[in-house]
Specification:
Radius of gyration of chain A: 18 Å
CATH class of the largest domain in chain B: Alpha Beta
Oligomer: heterodimer
CATH superfamily of the largest domain in chain B: NADH-ubiquinone oxidoreductase 51kDa subunit
Radius of gyration of chain B: 21 Å
Shape of chain A: elongated
CATH architecture of the largest domain in chain B: 3-Layer(aba) Sandwich
Strand content of chain A: 5-15%
CATH topology of the largest domain in chain B: Rossmann fold
CATH topology of the largest domain in chain A: Glutaredoxin
Largest interface: A-B, 41 and 59 residues
Helix content of chain A: 40-55%
């Protein structure tokens, strides 16, 4: 996904920004929710988007940059249309997560942290997603995919356009 | 009695997340009752119940509530820690998805006790489905008039950072900053979110509150041990036959939990080690599992109850490899604020990695132990102390296995 030349929210979204800011004793409390909104809208949080969001909060772009770079769910560069994040923490490791990661790398022809050439999938290896009873597991966009085997991974990948 | 269901009693119902189902099983009756109680009487009831924080620290909940200054005139905030992230723990995900109204009702009661008009529920960013389910329940509670009449709930999504599960890191994040923990004192009860007195409680802790108000402190206290009341939800994973959540008295032993509830050890069937309370809890050997799972029982066994995330390892598991995975986690999640934590977690991971790869050096194990022991207690928050637990216990209890990997 590429950001529009000028990153700006619609009038409706701006109303939503004000509503979110009013929920907190200090409007800055809404920074994370608004950054989520910005990422959903513009695809990723470029320096330009950071500066735009900073303006909505009367914050310095440096403050917003510090926040964006701290959290793993904020992307500073274009990601694939789908993000596949395999848990590699202890319970998933014991259940075979390394083989799942290896299978995904081989199948997609990319390394962890990379995006397929056609821009479909970004592959990540992440810390505990707290679904250890279903290990090994991964998150695909908003969904948890559980009890993974290489065959199940293939079926999931085939469903991703 | 060992597996009495209180928090999870409705989990068998497919509609357990709805207001209708919650009302059918006695929901919001405790809130009715609590409205006729003085705030101090609610806090006293919770104190008497021996309810202890179930997010990790195990602090007595009623005592925490009593720290809110009595003469404070401004706002007081109730913050729910739903930033579940301790490796091996998944109970709050179930509560948010399947019993969201218990959390809302518990918040109403807790808010009355601490005189709060606003509650924030901080849900980890990866928990999209729990966030949707819980948000839907909040809308139902507004429509039904439980919320919006003196108490409001704001649902807040995190953005991926384990440290935001630490209560002052969570507060920083809620304020729109990176999730750096804050120096204590002042404790949040004196100066917390947005500079105001704040109580931060775990999801499961607050879900217990309606039941305590309904059935009484004595009933709840009697479910547990002398110093901790109630049941709690154990998350069991790793090499067991039936991984999953199990609600049981905190007086259950680790052996009963593994053998009777979780179906026994999988893998080769022979137990090697168990992490009893999330990855920050020191590891136990197979001969150390006849301990009760309450806060003090596990503390006396040299480990901790933590978040009750139980990770089971059979004899085929490599302990050095397990430590490498755990050390990678702490290196990744250190927030970088305090030097001992930022530097040690990174270097210790590198050393664990080279040991597993067969390139360990003769003095690596002693160096890890030395660095771990000297750094403990020197940082702003408990994160590094949590990392030190596994570093020391894995190496001291399974040293021969590490030494076997290091070239002579």
């Amino acid at each position: 996904m590429t950001a529009p030349a000028t990153s700006a929210f619609s009038a409706e979204q701006l109303t939503d920004v004000r509503r979110l800011q009013a929920l907190y004793p200090d409007p800055r409390g809404a920074l994370l929710p608004v950054l989520h909104m910005a990422q959903d809208t513009f695809g990723h949080l470029s320096l330009e988007v950071e500066e735009y969001v900073a303006g909505l909060f009367n914050l310095s772009p440096a403050h917003v940059h510090e926040v964006v770079t701290f959290y793993t769910l904020f992307f500073r560069e274009a990601r694939g249309r789908h993000v596949v994040a395999v848990c590699h923490n202890l319970s998933c490791h014991l259940a075979g997560a390394p083989a799942i990661v290896a299978h995904l790398k081989q199948r997609l022809g990319i390394d962890v942290g990379e995006t397929t050439a056609d821009g479909t999938i970004t592959l990540q290896s992440v810390e505990c997603l707290c679904a250890c009873e279903h290990a090994p597991m991964m998150q695909v966009d908003d969904r948890y995919e559980i009890g993974l085997t290489p065959e199940k991974v293939d079926r999931i990948l085939e469903g991703l356009g | 009695m060992m597996s009495e269901k209180i928090l999870t009693r409705n989990f068998g119902r497919i509609d357990s997340h709805t207001l209708t189902a919650y009302l059918e099983t006695g929901g919001y009756a405790a809130w009715q009752r609590a409205q006729a109680m003085e705030p101090a009487a609610i806090t006293e009831e919770v104190k008497q119940s021996n309810l202890r924080g179930l997010g990790g620290a195990g602090f007595p909940t009623g005592t925490k509530w009593s720290f809110i200054p009595k003469n404070h005139a401004g706002p007081v905030y109730l913050v729910i820690n739903a930033d579940e992230g301790e490796p091996g723990t998944f109970k709050d995900r179930y509560l948010l998805e399947r019993e969201p109204h218990a959390l809302i009702e518990g918040m109403l009661i807790a808010a009355r006790a601490i005189r709060s008009a606003t509650g924030f529920v901080y849900i980890r960013g990866e928990y999209v489905e729990p966030w949707r389910k819980f948000s839907a329940a909040v809308r139902e509670a507004y429509d039904a008039g439980y919320l919006g009449k003196g108490f409001d709930v704001v649902v807040h999504r995190g953005a991926g950072a384990y440290i935001c599960g630490e209560e002052t890191g969570l507060i920083s994040s809620l304020e729109g900053k990176k999730g750096w923990p804050k120096v204590k004192p002042p404790f949040p009860a004196i100066k917390g979110a947005f500079g105001m007195p704040t109580i931060v409680n775990n999801v499961e802790t607050i879900c217990h509150v309606p039941h305590i108000v309904n059935r009484g402190a004595a009933w709840f206290a009697a479910l547990g041990t002398k110093t901790q009341g109630g049941t709690r939800i154990f998350s069991v994973s790793g090499r067991v036959r039936k991984p999953g959540i199990y609600e049981a008295s905190v007086a259950i032993t680790l052996r009963q939990l593994i053998d009777e509830l979780a179906g026994g050890v999988a893998g080769n069937g022979r137990l090697k080690a168990v992490v009893p309370g999330g990855s920050s809890a020191p590891i136990l050997r197979s001969d150390e599992i006849d301990v009760t799972m309450d806060v003090d029982g596990l503390r006396n066994a040299g480990t901790m109850a933590g978040s009750a995330g139980v990770i089971v390892m059979d004899e085929t598991v490599s302990i050095p490899e397990a430590l490498m995975v755990v050390a990678r986690f702490y290196a990744h999640e250190s927030c970088g604020q305090c030097t001992p934590c930022r530097e040690s977690t990174g270097w210790i991971y590198k050393m664990c990695h080279r040991i597993v790869e067969g390139h360990g050096r003769k003095d690596d194990l002693d160096k890890i132990l030395d660095v771990a022991k000297r750094g403990a207690g020197t940082t702003i928050c408990a994160f590094y102390d949590g990392a030190v637990g596994p570093y020391i216990s894995y190496i001291e209890k399974f040293r021969a296995e590490f030494e076997a990997l290091i070239p002579k």
